[in-house]
Specification:
The protein has 118 residues and is mostly beta strands. It has no helices and 12 strands. Helix content is 0%, strand content 43%. Strand 9 (76-79) and strand 10 (87-88) form a beta hairpin. The protein starts with a strand and ends with a strand.
Length: 118
């Protein structure tokens, strides 16, 4: 089970995630436009059990559509496939993921609590 849980989730489902390709427990994930956090590693059938809400410590980069950008506590965070880490504030190229519960400096990568979901 994911060990980066800050506040427990209430909704979880077994899903075939669209991103990343092979989710590992604790990874931020997408099922189409639905954000979540992998609670388990992907199994041999391609299924990952995912939390669809809750707050998790996740790696977030201070980056937006125009390059480096500071992230303030309370800002919307987006999942941008192909980026490492995939979470930033790029609303142009990303899928809405949740809310940053702490700040990240412009250009920096930090592990912060992120409130998952809508």
């Amino acid at each position: 089970m994911a060990k980066n849980t800050v506040y427990m989730w209430t909704e979880s489902l077994p899903l075939v995630c669209s991103s990343p390709a092979t989710p590992q427990s604790g990874d931020p994930v997408l099922f189409g436009q639905l954000p979540g956090v992998a609670l388990t590693n992907e199994d041999s059938n391609g299924v990952t059990t995912c939390a669809l809400d809750g707050t998790f410590d996740l790696s977030v980069k201070g980056e937006g559509a125009g390059g480096n950008a500071a992230i303030t506590a309370g800002a919307k965070v987006y999942y941008e496939a192909g980026q490492t880490p995939p979470l930033n504030v790029d609303a142009t190229n990303g899928v809405y993921f949740g809310i940053a519960m702490a700040a990240v400096s412009s250009g920096a990568t930090a592990t912060i609590p992120v409130r998952v979901g809508y």
